[in-house]
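Data card: per-record layout.
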Amino acid sequence: MSYARYIVFLQALLAIFIAGGIFFKRKTLKNWSMSIFILVFGLEMLVFLYGTSAVRYVYPGYTAWLYFLPGFIYGPILYIHFKCVLFGEKYKPKKIEFLHLLPFVLVLVYSFDFFMLSGLELESFLHRHFLDRIMPINYARALHQLVYAIILAYLMYSNFKVVDRAKRFYLTIISIIYTLATLIVSFYTLFADTWRDFIFYYLTASFLILFLAYVLIYNPDFFKRIGGKYKTSGLKDIDLKRIENRMDQLLEQDKLFLKNNLTISEVSKRLNIPSHHISQMLSTNVKMTFNQYVNEKRINHAKSILAHPKNNMYKIEALSLEMGFNNKVTFYKAFKKHVGMTPSQFKKEKQKALAQR
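The structure for this 357-residue chain is written out next.
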């Protein structure tokens, strides 16, 4: 076994160990998704070492078992992880998002016949049908990973302004690592002579992924220290407080927070303050994103309306639109998150309390 293969073997064991550490460190979907990602990659490295060694001929039958399928799992898992980072613990995957696993299921069905073959039969099948059955899966895997590299980059870009700098930096690092690994595996899929040539891919990808895992477990505040305090901005606490007061006055004036699709860019222009300074203030002083901050003001205003019997004529759907929400469902979710009950329940509670006075 060459030195490179020894390193990959140690990295595979380390990946499995770290995956367990992330999984049990904090039981959240964010940690579980990253744990599964690293675990599957660690197992894929072990299968690679097995499939490119003499052990494969002594104990045949498991060749490529965990090579084809992981490539169709990494993207969807990272998609879930990105959503958890962007939207916090409130994020719950929707049923339609499970369609991200459809390519994985299709490849599993497509390859089910030869995966059911025993030892030497599987070896023989892989040699005879390498070009017509195996390579199409390899190409599909590379294409699938490339597509998800684009999806992840778009997901981060479309939410770039509503998350703090630490999260942006963290997601950027993941995107770069995933894209680099995808480009390398795509290159070897097209030009490698044998599976053994992929050793460089596993060496590079595992170093990058294990670095990320180390930061998540042993130094979780690393990215926060880079982006959390905005040390390069030069803003002091008194400046942040001044921005907070000016922004609060602007939103309360003429109830600007009721405007549908209000953006941080619009507030930035009105205040003549850079949007990243406003983001810093929200992250440091208020501990909220811009959308959360605006929604809180909308909910507080809705509470004041619902609390008075004279406003009984208000229908919840009409109220939600007047508060600046796009629809009743979004309003209900935001209201219940901030108040702990639905608008209708809040209205009954308040009016019942008034009647008992």
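Known properties of this structure: Residues 227-232 have pLDDT under 50 and may be disordered. The radius of gyration is 26 Å.

See the next section for split statistics.
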